[in-house]
Structures are given as structure tokens and as C-alpha cells.
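Limitations
The C-alpha cells in this dataset are predictions for the assembled complex, not deposited experimental models. Users should treat interface geometry with appropriate caution, especially where small molecules or nucleic acid strands are included. An illustrative entry is reproduced here so readers can see what is and is not provided.
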Amino acid sequence: MESKMQRRTLMRTAAALPLVSLLRPATARAEVKEIRMIEAGGKSGESIEKGYGDPFTAKTGIKLVRESPAPLGKLRAMVESGKITATLFELGSGTMVHAKSLGLIEKLDWAAINPNPMFPEARNEYGFGYQYYSTGMAWQKGTKPLRSWADFFNTKDFPGKRAIPDYVGSAVPFALLADGVPVDKLFPLDIDRALKKLLSIRKDISVVWKAGAQAPQLLNDGEVQYAIAWSGRIVEEPKLVFNFNGAMADLAFICMIKGSPKEEQAAAAKLYHEMSVAKNQARAAEVVAYTGPSPDLDALLPKDKLFMYPTAKVNKDVQWVQNAEYWAEHGEEGNKKWETFKLSL
Amino acid sequence: MAKPIAERRQGVGFITPLLVLMLAAFNLPILYMLTLGFWSKEGGFTFEHYAQLLDTPIYLRVLANTMRVSLVATLVNVAIGYPLAYWMRGLSPRAQFIAVSLVIVPFWISILVRTYAWIVVLGNNGMVNRLLLWSGMVDTPVSFLYNELGVMIGMANVLLPFLVLPLFAAMLRIDDRLMQAAASMGAPNHTIFLKVFLPLTLPALAAGTLLVFILCLGFYVTPAILGGGKVTMISNLLDILINQIPRWEQASAVSTLLLIVTLAIFAGYRALDRKVGT
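Predicted assembly:
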């Protein structure tokens, strides 16, 4: 998810790859001293270190070294060139399914991980769903509140500029909800119908944002009045409101890179176990308001902050879950339609 | 002018290391990326990615959009840059130094910082809009950003030095006595400018314009931020194809097309240059 936010040119990524491989000779070591993870960066990366890396290191003596960002292209470059410089890679749900079909990630050994209880959708054959995040509507306090997606698209009664994400999968489902499609009939998506609905408010779509930090900035500056945004970017902003009602819950996964050293994969299983511990997830949630997959987490979180978290009972029940399988299959076609749509904005 | 061949050969030894480095570290990887566009998934030679390029109108439309935005941004640059360089030529040496410094300073500031700075200046609550609202010139904020206008402003800001500096250097070399001679024969000011000054600056203007245009084609940050995501240029599309989807073969085909178009423009410029030169 946040991997998309931090953009680097291919040049820089490409320039960094040989350097990394120089620093880390490919000779196999009997004893694992560190494992490497390529993740989204920012606060989310810090939360991984504080929540899971630290207890993992304390128990095993193995260091967790982080690197960011984590675009799919980087994973493909790594696996196809055979220069594997890390063991773990963070991927969005749809991206994970896509990476699986490209043969870029390994199956997880769930028996070795032996996790504490977790929500079923987070326990995937190919990845550990470690972080829930929500995509929904947001506005500044004092703005006329929206109750539904129909309101977001009703620019007559709810005037003001809109900002939407520049990710087809995080924008078009909401247009269909606004157009009267019930949640359980959303998929397979009628992308054309959704884009038509979006075009109907074309004049009021001011910004199509790429970086997650843009949405709160635009709202705080009064540049737009309503935005579709990522929950963690909004809930801790004092002047802003996030509405979980009708929002889309999605999961970020930590996956194992195809061809990474077996002994490092074995060590990673212990890190995965730490990621399933509710107490650790509560510590990660202190850093960033995205939460882990433990059903027992609510009790460990501060009561006054429960409203912020995507998995809190009050929020989880009013959301629906992204369909990763659909996007893995239709992502490219969806992207083409999306780019065409943007040219007519 | 032609130097003896032996003397010309002597230089080759000195540049060989650089030549080898450029070939191995820069040209070969690019060549490899370009050949990717001809590989099929099964490993054989194919034109399928190019066929898709033509089948999917979006790629060509974005390329056309890129050309159009680049052309307008270049023209804006010329419209601002030429008078600026002309004005700088007439300044005292001390003032010229200050003016050149002011043109160069933005060069040293990160393009990201400069791009975001425009948000502070031109946003709905930005300095310019507040001034306009306060003075009563407008009732609602003017939308400078998150459209093509914003992209143009940002691009002009980044690229202006690339045009102004060579143009200014060329203008400094023009002998004042040429204009004086024209004046002494009774030519009015605008005739002196059009018939004497302008032709002498044309080669530098053409070279600078071409440089700016080609740089425009590769812009990524500015359209992404100041265009509000609504002004899609070819590099933004390539980013999606390379990092998000990732379809390097398609990206390679798009890049090859862009390279061909750029080279064609360059060839056109060379042909024109030679015609004017003779």
C-alpha cells in the first residue's frame, strides 16, 4: 500500500540494486545474523520495527534490517536477475496475488510459524496479512458531514472540491456503491459504469492523488472539501474526520521472496510468529493507526483511540473487504481504462 | 580548420576509459531494456508488444498529450526566457552577475522542494490567491494548480535556466557595433532587432528550445504533483508499467517509440540547422 506513496525513479532503484548486492556477498552462511525486509517505509516501517522487529531480535538475536520502498517492479527485478538481496517483501493484497502468478514469492510454512489466533483472510498461503488499512471518505471538521457514498457524489447538496486516489482499485468501487450497487453485488465490478459515474462529477474532482500524505494536506489546506483517503493518514489529524461507514478494508501482506536462502526463511518464520502476537500488534498500532490481524487486539488498545483502528469491532463491522483476486486478474485492464478516464478529466 | 589526423587520433586514448564506461554502464543496459520490447513471454522474438501499443489507444494518446504539454511549456519558456535574456544583456556587469545568480540558484534546490513550493504560493489559500481575494480582484480563488496551467508554471520554472543561460551567453557575444551600424544607416529600432539582433541569436535560441523540449518529454514529478494527477505524461505511464503492473516489455515498447520520436525531432532540427548554416 504505502509502497505506492514513495516514488523513486527506476534509475535510482536500478542504481541501488548492484550496490546492495556488493555489500552483501551471496555466500551462504550457516548461522543467520540478520534478515532483510523490503517494506513500504515511513511510519508503517517504524511500526514493523517497534512492534515485531524488536521482540524478534530480543528472542533470537537476529537483526531485522529494513529497506524501502517496495514496488512490485523491484521484486520482479530481484527474482528475475537472481540477485536476491532480501528475504521478506511487503505487498498489497492484489499485488500479492499478482506476484504469486508471476512466481515471485514462496509459499509460507504455516506449521513452522505456528501463529496465535488471527482473522482468516490474513492467513494466506503466500503471505501474512500483517496490517489492515481502510480507504474511505474524509473531510475537515465543520464541513457538512457525508453519510453515504451517494453523498460523496452528490455535489449539489454537498458542494465542494473532491480528491480521489490515483489507484483504480481504491476509487471505482465507491462510484458503484454511490450508483446504487449493493456491497455484495460489487464484484465483478462494472468498471465502465463506475467511470461514467465519476465523470458525472468531473468538474468537482480537483486532485487525483498518488501519495497518501496528499489527501490530509489537501483537506487541511482547504484545497478540497472531501477526499477518498487512507484511514491512518486522517484519523490522527486533529482537524479531520474519517468515516469508516462503507469504507473498504484491505490488507498489506509480508511475503517471502522466491529463491531467498532457506535458513533465512526459517528464521523469518519466527518473525512471522511475533507478528501474530496481539501484544506486539498493539505496540505497532502505537506508531501508526493501522492494526494487525489478531481478533484479541481490541482489548489491548487504548479505549479512547479505538475509533481510529480499521479492525476495531465498531469499524470492522461497517466496512467491506477489497477483492484481491479480482484485481490480480483485471488490474492491467482496469489501469488502461483508468488512464483513459484521467485524460478526460 | 581540419587538424592533422595523427593529432586527432591522439585524443582517442584519453577518452577511451570514459567511452568504455559509458558503453558498458549506460548504453548497453539501455539497449537491453529496449530489446525487451521484442521478447515474448515464451522467450522468442515478437512484435506483440508493439501491436498492443497500436491496439491500445491510451498509450498513443498519452504520448500525444506529452508532446502537446511539452510544446506549450517550451513556448512559454521562450516567451519568458528570450525577453529575460535580452533584458539581462543590457544590464551593468554587476547587475548581470546578480541576475545570472538569481536564474541559477533554483538549479541548486531539489525539484521536489521547488514543486511543493508552488503549492504554498499558488494554492487556493496560497499567497497569490489571498492577495487577489484581499484586493477584491476576484471573488473566488483562481485555480492555478491541479491542471495544465499548474504543470506549465512548474515546468517553466524548472527549465528556464536551460534556455536563458545559453541564450544570454550568445547575446553577450553579439558586437554592439553591428546594431550601431544599422542605426547609423537609419534603421528604426524594431528593424534593427528583427534584421540584425534576432537572426544572430537564432542558433542559440533553436538549440535551447530543442533542449528544453526534449527535457519536457521526460517530466515526472511536476505533472504528478502540480497536475493533480490529471495531466498524464509518458513518464507517469512508464512508472505504472514498470513498478506497478509490472510489464517491462510494454514499457520498453513505449520507451522505444518515445526515443524514435525524440530522435526524429532532433534529426529535423539538425537538417534545419544545416540549411540555415549554409
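Some entries come with short summary sentences. For this one: Residues 324-343 of chain A form the longest helix (20 residues).
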